Amino acid sequence: MALYRLIYVSQAVSGIGYLDLIDIMQKSEKNNMPVGITGMLSFGDSMFLQVLEGSRRTVCQTYNRILGDKRHVNPELIEFTEIDHREFGLWSMKAVQIDNHPEIRNTLLKYSYSTTFSPYSMTGNQCLSFLHEIMGIYQNK
User: Fold this and answer.
1) Alpha-helix runs per DSSP H in the chain
2) pLDDT value, residue 28
3) Mean pLDDT (the chain, rounded)
4) Domain 3-139 architecture
C-alpha cells in the first residue's frame, strides 16, 4: 500500500482558543487512529498548519472532512505527495500551540521571514522541516 502526505494551511476564525484545540485533538484521535492517519497540527497567530499521513483515500477523506470544519477559513493545499515512510507515525494527531514558546519562535525564524507564524509564505519543504523541528522539541520535553 502506498503512503501519502498532505500539508495544508488555513486561517482560524475569530475566537479560536485552547479549548478548541483540545476538541480538535480529541475528535482527530478518535477519527484518525482506526483508519491509520498520523500527523501533526500546529497553531499560532490564528493560523493552522497541518500534516496528514496515510493511504491516499483516507488522507483525502480526512482532508475533505477538515475542509468542512467551520473553525477555519481560506484553506490552502501546500503539498500532496507519495512518501516512502511516515514522519509522524508516533502520533494519530498531535497539536502544538506555537504561541508563547520561545524555542519554537526561534525555529520559525529559520523557515520564515519573521517570528509571526505565517505558513502561507512557506514552501512545502519549509513547512515539513519546521514541523519536524517542533516535533523534536516536544519529544525532548
Assistant:
1) 18-35, 56-67, 102-111, 124-139
2) 85
3) 88
4) 2-Layer Sandwich (3.30)
